[in-house]
Amino acid sequence: MNVNGTPTRTIWLAEDGATVEIIDQTRLPHVFEVAHLTDLDDACHAIKAMLVRGAPLIGATAAHGLALAMRADASDAGLTIAYDRLYATRPTAVNLRWALDEMRALLAPLPADERAVAARARAVALCDEDVRLNEAIGDHGLSVFRDLWDRKGRPDRFNVLTHCNAGWLATVDWGTALAPIYKAHDAGLPIHVWVDETRPRNQGASLTAWELNQHGVPHTVIVDNAGGHMMQHGLVDACIVGTDRTTATGDVCNKIGTYLKALAARDNGVPFYVALPSPTIDWTVADGVAEIPIEDRGAGEVCRLWGRLDSGDTAWITVTPEGSPAANPAFDVTPARLVTGLITERGVCPASAEGLAGLFPERATAAAE
After folding, report:
1. Using one digit for the tens of pLDDT, what is the confidence trace for 101-153?
2. What do you get for the CA distance between the two ends of the chain, in Å?
3. Is 152 annotated as a binding residue?
4. Which GO terms describe its molecular function (predicted)?
5. Cβ(11)–Cβ(61) under 8 Å?
6. What are 7's strand-pairing partners?
7. 3-class secondary structure, 253
8. Which sign, positive or negative, has the C-alpha torsion 58, 169, 92, 140?
9. What gap in Å lies between CA 300 and CA 13, rounded to an integer?
10. Can the peptide bond before residue 293 be classed as cis, meaning omega within 30 degrees of 0?
């Protein structure tokens, strides 16, 4: 996608061929800043502190982090330490484990002196693969939007509600839930996006809105609790979100507040779609509510906000009374029964074990063995 007209990815190798560069997403939307990852510590910090976020991008960063670790210590012990440290950074997004497993499976049989080069090449390939998967999601999602628009009589404005950020900033490029929106906009559909602010980190207001601005997609930022009201008044034609982990039965785990949007959509007859690349499917989990670990993050994210002052300076401000505690569960689980369909790189399917197995028979069979 583009930043000020320049094609840009969220993660890439620097000109030296060794340093990994990322967009520091904690600085957006007011400051565009590139951070440099030179070792395992940098990669772990980038994931943990959410300089990068979004399940696919977390996986891509973990792959590059393992490659950086192999430059310093490519021994079996070094591989194990790097895997364990990266795996511990964030518990919910399954792409993290998937990417690390992919890297370890490649590297473990190799001699230590071959691991650094092989790891770098595989990390780059995983990033390129992520771009291909997400563009395919965009194509399949475009078909969904076009069909919905046609069935509504091709109105002058087709309103889509999103939650959190599932655009190119959450992946290497294109995005998951925003990929169909970009495709629809570029194809000439009169798409307009209601952008949930997505407290507490405001990924919608800060990141999704910034992305849509860069691409010229019409949108309006709304507070999180306005979504149900919009649906009641016929102002939402479809909802689409991403997911950090999808169970083999179609439950989806996404940013806190997604479940409430799905409930409102069901009550108002609004289609609720989830867009995901296949590495986000956890074939080992059947019951999302009972089995997916939900990350608890620090109270500071709830109590403090980063933004631009009237003076033009950026600063942190405190919004809660001193002494008031805050809880910060980062994700919730939306049961499959509330999901209209799953949009993947292989097509669209019902949110069910049968639906997923129909698109990914080889994965379902392997998981059952």
Report:
1. 999 999 999 999 999 999 999 999 999 999 999 999 999 999 999 999 999 99
2. 40
3. no
4. S-methyl-5-thioribose-1-phosphate isomerase activity
5. yes
6. 2
7. strand
8. negative
9. 32
10. no
Q: How far is CA 17 from CA 13, 29, 68, 123, in A?
A: 6, 28, 11, 12
- Nearest-angstrom CA–CA distance, 235 and 268: 11
Which tokens is 257 given?
């507040």
Q: 17 is written with which tokens?
A: 């061929």
| H or E stretch at 215 | helix 209-215
Give the integer Cα–Cα distance in Å for 170 and 178: 10
Distance separating alpha carbons of residues 102 and 99, to the nearest angstrom? 5
Q: Write the CATH number of the domain with boundaries 153-368.
A: 3.40.50.10470
Q: Does 120 belong to an annotated binding site?
A: no
Say whether 53 counts as a known binding-site residue: yes
- DSSP states of 68-131: HHHHH--SHHHHHHHHHHHHTS-SS-HHHHHHHHHHHHHHTTS-HHHHHHHHHHHHHHHHHHHH
- At 48, the amino acid letter reads K
pLDDT tens by residue, 220-279: 999 999 999 999 999 999 999 999 999 999 999 999 999 999 999 999 999 999 999 999
**C-alpha–C-alpha distance, residues 359 and 101, integer Å:** 22
Catalytic residue among 224, 237, 244, 282: 244
Q: Are 279 and 56 in contact (CB under 8 A)?
A: yes
Q: Is 327 annotated as a binding residue?
A: no
Question: How many beta carbons lie within 10 A of that of residue 303, not counting itself?
Answer: 18
- 275-287 burial, b at 16+ Cβ within 10 Å, e below that, comes to bbbbbbbbbebee
Is residue 363 marked as binding? no
Superfamily of the domain at 2-129: translation initiation factor eif-2b, domain 1 (1.20.120.420)
Q: Where are the domains of the chain?
A: 2-129, 153-368
Rounded CA-CA distance 61/66 in Å is 9
**Catalytic annotation present for 244:** yes
Query: Are the folds of 2-129 and 153-368 the same?
Result: no
Say whether 261 counts as a known binding-site residue.
no
